[in-house]
Design a protein that fits this description.
about 500 residues; about 10% helix; disordered N terminus; 13-stranded antiparallel β-sheet; single chain; 3 domains; mainly beta; 9-stranded mixed β-sheet; outer membrane lipoprotein receptor (LolB), chain A; Cathepsin D, subunit A, domain 1
């Protein structure tokens, strides 16, 4: 069986030797230790278990249960309106995410540092790292000492410590950087006499508020408790090539849902399986088990949530898969919906763009390094295959390889303004050309680009114009690789 690559660059408590700490930083650590009643790794807290709730604008979005062993953890989340489950965790060497079908994939690249930084703060392992005192600021009448922590890969964290109590009050991850995120309104509770742990964090000034309760200190936690959940959907893989229809800007595939054939867009940029309301009725999808919204570049639309008995693509069949349905038709080439992460996540997917076919295989039977292509580590944390790309040989982007993007590059507006790029106004909004995007020695020269609004980080969507430069593109969803096969001269 293949094993996902471990994250060796900073995921153990083996940190560089710091210069001599300032008196202020040393005093702050003592004050913090007196407030919490423990230091990470001192034996006071071996394991933790607790319930949590995620609230946004006073509405409970999800709730769940978590277990921890040191830095390792697993969270099981129940999404209230959708009535679905997902999970995420850290084994001690690999961060992972599992969708509502139980298909797990590892986090890689730029998804890892902020996730790791949150883990350090929530477990208080950040208190055993070198702190550099930066000064004191006033916040709501309190004196907060700001210290800076820098991880081995250079990812910075600013931590604000209440001088009067020693408690953390807020933190800023990657301050001033592309992945800046603030953790606000940190609150503590006494988990047992004399021992305080963080029980509430808000993401941003008005973002999600996570609150923790029913905390158990040092419960029994087994190794299996930290692993991804069992799959609720199952693949039966065939052996044949699946015909595709390739238009100038779409990849179209036929599939049967509960025995009813439909025509769908193949959309690697979509987080799930989406059906129109009309097709859902024809396919006799059972009564909805939940409700939600489908968000895209085109807006937000109400949808229902349910499961299908069987989704057959060629001679491969996915059973008991979670689907979203009720959308209005939005594309003449895929009138019945689109197939995204939920349909692909458990498989090794090969898109042969030269011969217009697709194969689905068990990822455990494929070694990407033996395929002859260019293997790129990818992250599928949001259900989208993201690979590193350089803009103008210098600026690193998380590029989503998006078969659902019919054109060139989609790039956030703040990147356009922040780096002085000049776009013109078109029917699609502000558009223009970028100079060069590159992946190693591969150049994507003068790509057309249009603007998208919203979203943090430094990302872009590379669509069908990018994909046409390759004879074949493989996606190893369970392992987290994208394999590129450039067109032969």
């Amino acid at each position: 069986m293949k094993c996902a690559a471990t994250l060796a660059f900073f995921l153990v408590l083996a940190f560089p030797v710091a210069s001599r700490a300032t008196d202020d930083a040393t005093w702050l650590k003592y004050a913090h230790r007196a407030y919490t009643g423990f230091t990470f790794g001192d034996g006071t807290i071996h394991t933790l278990a607790y319930d949590f709730t995620d609230t946004y604008e006073k509405k409970a979005m999800s709730n769940g249960h978590a277990v921890r062993v040191g830095l390792a953890y697993r969270e099981n989340v129940h999404w209230s309106d959708e009535n679905i489950e997902s999970s995420d965790g850290f084994t001690g060497s690999l961060f992972w995410y599992a969708d509502s079908n139980g298909f797990a994939t590892g986090l890689r690249g730029n998804d890892v540092p902020p996730t790791y930084a949150e883990d350090l703060i929530e477990t208080d392992a950040i208190a055993v790292l070198p702190w550099t005192y930066q000064g004191t600021v006033k916040d709501s009448g309190a004196d907060l000492a700001m210290v800076r922590v820098t991880l081995n890969n250079g990812f910075p964290i600013e931590l604000y410590v209440d001088r009067a109590t020693g408690a953390y009050r807020r933190a800023v991850l990657d301050p001033g950087g592309a992945y800046e995120m603030s953790l606000q309104n940190i609150v503590y509770t006494e988990a047992r006499p004399g021992v305080r742990v963080i029980s509430a964090i808000q993401f941003g000034n008005d973002g999600d508020l996570i609150t923790v309760n029913h905390i158990a200190v040092n419960p029994v936690v087994s190794e299996s408790d930290l692993q991804p959940p069992p799959r609720t959907a199952q693949w039966q893989f065939g052996t044949g090539a699946i015909p595709l229809t390739l238009t100038h800007d779409r990849i179209v595939v036929h599939a049967a849902v509960n025995g009813v054939t439909g025509t769908f867009l193949l959309d690697t940029g979509a987080a799930g399986i989406f059906f129109t309301g009309d097709f859902a009725r024809r396919a006799h999808i059972a009564k909805a088990t939940g409700h939600g919204f489908a968000d895209s570049l085109y807006g937000s639309e109400k949808i229902d949530v349910g499961r299908v008995e069987a989704l057959k693509i060629g001679d491969s069949t996915l059973t008991n898969a979670l689907v979203y349905y009720g959308m209005a038709p939005f594309d003449v080439w895929g009138p019945d919906g689109l197939l995204g992460y939920g349909a692909l996540a458990g498989a090794y997917v090969s898109l042969d763009l030269k011969d217009a076919t697709m194969t689905l295989r068990d990822a455990a039977d494929v070694d990407p390094s033996s395929t002859g292509g260019i293997v790129l580590p990818a992250s599928f944390a949001e259900g989208q295959p993201s690979i590193p790309m350089l803009l103008n040989k210098s600026l690193v982007f998380d590029a989503v390889v998006d078969t659902g993007n019919p054109g060139g590059v989609v790039i956030p507006a703040r990147i356009i303004s922040g780096y002085g790029l000049h776009f013109y106004q078109s029917d699609a909004g502000p558009c223009g050309k970028l100079d060069t995007l590159s992946i190693g020695a591969l150049n994507y020269d003068s790509p057309d680009a249009c603007v998208a609004y919203g979203g943090g980080g430094r990302w872009l969507l590379a669509g069908m114009d990018f994909l046409r430069r390759f004879d074949r593109v493989d996606f190893d969803y369970p392992l987290g690789d994208v394999v590129l096969f450039p067109k032969k001269p």
